[in-house]
């Protein structure tokens, strides 16, 4: 690009920036759009992606032509830099959107080992046996809180018991459970 054409394009960009000159913009679009598309396709962008990025670059030219400084670079350098950066952004978005098939969080959990299953079942049976030794009103509150996920306030509203009573019964139940489990008050030879 020679000095005359460089000055001509700078003048057209100035006309777009100051006057929103559509004729100047059309001339810039006709000249730069095919060159930008070719550049992007050489950077491994597909046809549709290259056309989309060119559209973005030209919209930037229309909206932000006032940011172009002819003393710092030629208009072509400015536009090609914008195109290159937009292409990088598109590639990053594509990589970020792609899922890694071997990502540990996406893989199904391994089935539990047989001995872990037996231990878990034994532990559950011990807890069930200990629960059976508690008063019915405490067991009911524990089930509502931990099996049904209700808050103390919800339990109070559902049972008609004062909130303090609900809290104290649950606390007492846990104390008794702890004692039963620690002292072996439950037959753990199952």
Describe the structure.
InterPro entries: RNA_pol_sigma-70-like, RNA_pol_sigma-70_dom, RNA_pol_sigma70_r2, RNA_pol_sigma70_r4_t2, RNA_pol_sigma_r2, RNA_pol_sigma_r3/r4-like, WH-like_DNA-bd_sf. Belongs to the sigma-70 factor family. ECF subfamily. The chain is mainly alpha-helical and 190 residues long. It has 2 domains: 3-97, RNA polymerase sigma factor, region 2, helix turn helix motif (Rna Polymerase Sigma Factor, Chain: A), CATH 1.10.1740.10; 114-183, Arc Repressor Mutant, subunit A. The chain contains 8 helices and no strands. Helix 1 (3-19) crosses helix 2 (22-42), helix 2 (22-42) packs across helix 4 and helix 3 crosses helix 4 (75-97). The longest helix is centred in the middle third of the chain and has 23 residues, at 75-97. The termini are far apart.
Q: What is the fourth-level CATH superfamily of the largest domain?
A: RNA polymerase sigma factor, region 2, helix turn helix motif
Q: Write down the domain tally.
A: 2
Low-confidence stretches: none
Number of strands: 0
Strand content: under 5%
Q: Report the total helices.
A: 8
Distance between the termini: 89 Å
Q: Roughly how many Å is the radius of gyration?
A: 36 Å
CATH C-level class of the largest domain is: Mainly Alpha
Q: Tags for this entry?
A:
Rna Polymerase Sigma Factor, Chain: A; elongated; mainly alpha; 73% helix; 8 helices; 190 residues; 2 domains; Arc Repressor Mutant, subunit A
Summary, kept brief:
It is built from 8 helices and no strands. The protein has helices at residues 3-19, 22-42, 47-64, 75-97, 114-132, 136-147, 152-159, 163-183. The model has no long low-confidence stretch (mean pLDDT 87).
């Amino acid at each position: 690009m020679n000095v005359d054409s460089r000055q001509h394009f700078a003048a057209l960009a100035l006309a777009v920036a100051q006057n929103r000159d559509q004729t100047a913009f059309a001339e810039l679009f006709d000249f730069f759009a095919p060159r930008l598309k070719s550049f992007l396709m050489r950077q491994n962008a597909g046809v549709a992606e290259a056309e989309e990025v060119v559209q973005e670059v030209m919209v930037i030219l229309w909206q932000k032509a006032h940011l172009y400084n002819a003393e710092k670079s030629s208009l072509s350098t400015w536009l090609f830099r914008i195109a290159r950066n937009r292409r990088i952004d598109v590639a990053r978005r594509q990589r970020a959107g792609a899922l890694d098939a071997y990502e540990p969080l996406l893989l199904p959990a391994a089935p539990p080992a047989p001995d872990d299953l037996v231990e878990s079942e034994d532990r559950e049976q011990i807890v069930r046996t200990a629960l059976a030794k508690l008063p019915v009103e405490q067991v009911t509150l524990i089930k509502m809180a931990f099996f049904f996920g209700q808050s103390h306030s919800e339990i109070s509203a559902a049972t008609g018991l004062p909130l303090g009573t609900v809290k104290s019964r649950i606390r007492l139940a846990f104390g008794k459970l702890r004692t039963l489990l620690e002292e072996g008050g439950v037959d753990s030879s199952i």
